[in-house]
Amino acid sequence: MLATRDNHSLSVQEMIVEKRKKRKAFSMDNVMPVVLLLTACVSVLTTIGILFTLLFETFIFFERVPIGEFLTAQKWYPFSNPGSFGILPLVSGTLKVTIIAVIVAVPIGLATAIYLSEYASERARRIIKPIMEVLAGVPTIVYGFFALTFVTPILRQVFPSLEIFNALSPGIVIGIMITPTIASLSEDAMSSVPQAMREGALGLGSTKLEVALKVVLPAAISGIVASIVLGVSRAIGETMIVAVAGGSTPNLSWDITSSIQTMTAYIVQVSQGDAGYGTTIYYSIYAVGFTLFLFTLVMNLLAQYVSRRFKEEY
Questions:
Q1: Is the dihedral of CA 15, 20, 21, 22 positive or negative?
Q2: Angle, to 10 degrees, between the axis of helix 88-114 and the axis of helix 280-309?
Q3: pLDDT digit string (tens) for 5-16?
């Protein structure tokens, strides 16, 4: 009789414990969605705050400088009297560096990705990929001094007319910097292609190179384009490399051997205290920053369009 009561009491205690566990699980199920929603809202509100700040300060700048002059004038001399605020020389410097970086990074990055995905052994992949990811984590200021003190002297031996500060050296180094990003993300996209597609192409008599270029590469084009756009966006927004090795001479030309100034380098220059708060020069950094924001926004929209256009369903 006592044993029956003990068993009955134990079962009641177990029921109470089980009920408490269910209440706790139920409360966590109710709380976690709210916490995750608040976390997502922080990201959205931060983006809205940044955009609002850029727009508000940019409007103040355009109250002082006509937007037509900003978009069409071919000289950028904000510190002269009167100042000239034509964004084209800064855009030219940014595009020169970015194009050089893309020419360097895309072939090397895709070749590396193809090797890691299609040719490398598992041991080689485990060694090479972490090294690339470490390279992606090197501070950009280190890359800047590497460009100025190592790459530029070597280039000047090949191109004697190359100036100390130029577009070529930082462009090459930025290309080196974004190569791991393109290679790593592209390799992930290629590795996600089903093995059956490779085996089917090999069974039809294709070589391994043909499989890589004509089967795997087109199938992974969505992820590859996304990786390239991400690398290009990083090149456009790169600051320290161009500030250290590119110079501070805005000029509207396609000469890659002379000193340049990019949009980010100008923001760094003014942010160091060369302009007082509330001056036209001060507000010009927001106009330049908003222009830079538009560049990266267009790149991201393009990446999304291409990803949707060429997305493959497996």
A1: positive
A2: 30
A3: 444 445 656 666
